[in-house]
Amino acid sequence: MTLLTKKQVFKEKSFAFKAGQSLDIQMGYETFGTLNDDKSNVVLIVHYFSANSHCAGKYTQEDATSGYWDSLIGPDKAIDTNKYFVICSDNLCNCGAYNPSIFTTGPASINPETQKPYGLSFPVPSVLDIINSQKALLASLDIYHVNAIAGFSFGAMSAYQWSVSYPDFMDKIIAINGSPVHPSYGSFAPLQHSIRVAALDPKWNNGDYYDCEEKPHESLHLAMQMMNVAAFQGASYELLYPRVHGEDSPAYSEITQFNSFEQKLYDAVSVSLPLVDLNHWIYTCRMCINFDITRTFDGDIEKTFKSIRAKLLAITCDDDILHPSAFVKQYVDLIDGGEQFTFKSQYGHMSAVLETQIFEHKIKAFLENSPSPLV
């Protein structure tokens, strides 16, 4: 049976950003399962960098695809909607600013004072702002404590931030292919590189391109392509984008032309391009680059990790170059009762979506407080 959901919209007046500004915001959100009487069965999902609140199910039976974590969320699945009330919201500055099923507030939103898009006048947000907006959403539903917070990549980072900023708000956190401090490597490639690509593009116009006839589509395309390449392990790219030997390509006589495997990736990225806003993309890049939960305690690592009271399950892929298992382990080891499960996958970072069958049993046992399987 197909799990059906619908998009709802949360609005908050004068939301206070940590950068100092207060703005009216809106966020889309979706729920799955039924909230029990004492509201003790809530699982908050935080979506990854370029995703949204559609983490499971379909809007109609006829939809071609389901939400990105449909293999994990639903009746009798690892996050069992027969037991849990699952909620996920569209992040502020969501990359898909032009996706009609996403409701978000960011640089492309209209500033009521000017009646023009905010552009770079929009405050630089932090992951703490993201979780504070989620906290406000939960409060609007009269929810002040959750059973668990789970997420992949940006969602994992957010779960760590929740555990430090509001240590009594949740019982458990599940952080998949994500770190409590953003690694330097992944901060450069692809995140900082994406911001620099935008700045080099005259069509970006210092973020003020909304009324321009020509938009910075090529710089956005390159930023999205760099993210795509970084999110997978090299072996998967050889399978997805193989060279075709013997092909007659104009790339052999013109330097700016594409071989067939280059064209295939270019075309794949182009499918999502119309839904994405470049400012929203680089704002999300900046949030990730800046992320470091030890800032909560002025860089005191020991104090930061001793403050965590929630039980932690960290799931990491050894082939993930963006959030390496060894990098995450040095922090998990500082958390009392922290558990890390590692695995291998040719899909690297995106294994958190594409190979959930590897770790779904760990999530199920962790949520049910069962003895954790060794493998």
Distance between the termini: 30 Å
Order of helices and strands: EEEEEEEEHEHEHHHHHHEHEHH
Strand content: 15-25%
Q: If helices are DSSP runs of H or I spanning 4 or more residues, what is the number of helices?
A: 11
Task: Strand order, main sheet: write it out.
Answer: 1-2-6-3-9-10-11-12
Tally of strands: 12
Low-confidence sequence ranges: none
The biggest beta sheet, please?
8 strands, mixed
Structural class designation: alpha/beta
Over all CA atoms, what is the radius of gyration?
Answer: 21 Å
Helix content: 25-40%
Structural shape: globular
Report a brief summary of the structure.
The chain has about 375 residues and is of the alpha/beta class. It has 11 helices and 12 strands.
Keywords:
31% helix, eight-stranded mixed β-sheet, single chain, 11 helices, alpha/beta, 12 strands
Describe this structure in words.
It is a single chain. With 375 residues, the chain is α/β, with parallel strands linked by helices. It is 31% helix and 17% strand. The strands form 3 sheets. It has an 8-stranded mixed β-sheet, with helices on both faces. It has a two-stranded parallel ribbon with strand order 4-5. A two-stranded antiparallel ribbon has the order 7-8. Strand 1 (8-16) and strand 2 (22-32) form a beta hairpin. It is globular and about 65 Å long. The two termini are 30 Å apart.
